[in-house]
């Protein structure tokens, strides 16, 4: 029973780390998959295979070398010099994403509940600090709560969609986009998510002694991500192309169910922003601690404060500037990761 619970914790943490705010709103699925029509189901299958394989590989390698942070893993894979540079770039990415997530949390508080943006930021930072000083166990626990709720919501979306006239659209949709572009976007999705997920997959791999737990947790987590991608694509396809005009397209798929479900959507969006923030800040502090020796609570406070100042730029502005850059850097990381893991 204990082993099964650990497998679920690893799986849920992997899913919660990858399934961020872009996924919860539906924008990520729409942009990377659904807009490519009926062939998107094939790229989702391809994505699922890579996420299962490489995510599990990251945790097993971290366990094997007892990596203190993702920098140790990158140095092991790519050598000292290249590994340091890749880790530096990863650190900048994680720091930037932390600022983006913090800004997103402030926006949710302000736009959905009328709470001042600054107060929303302060509340999010305070809660994040309380959880992060407890270590990796708090991240595992938070994801064990949040991800099942996300899964429940995904199942509700599928059931509602199945009763709509356009439920078969995911098999019928056509697209003018080229197949090469569709495959490129799938790899862009894999690269961007795994490059950031290593911040939490590495400490998870190091902290759990039983490699079979990591293996089954990685496979189950990857399969869960694939299921949610396919479910989201199925639901969004039924409302194409009109749904592309909405900021939160997934919310529109269940809009007829009323205010309670809309509140659930808002909660899930905030929760996914928050779990991504926790993962990124935790991974950052582990790497910085390796170089400075400063204590963890101090580093957590400093990283959160630095993220706060960048988050003042605003959510949408940060997204438009930083995310295209993440994609290009992450593709380089993925190609190197693929070559190294294939050679092992």
Automatic annotation (TrEMBL):
Keywords: Membrane, Transmembrane, Transmembrane helix
Transmembrane segments: 36-56, 85-109, 115-133, 140-162, 182-204, 216-236, 256-278, 298-315, 321-339
Annotated GO CC locations: membrane
UniProt xrefs under InterPro entries: Na/solute_symporter (IPR001734), YkvI-like (IPR038728)
Gene Ontology MF terms: transmembrane transporter activity
PANTHER family in the cross-refs: CONSERVED MEMBRANE PROTEIN, MEMBRANE PROTEIN
Protein name per UniProt: Membrane protein
Organism annotation: Insulibacter thermoxylanivorax
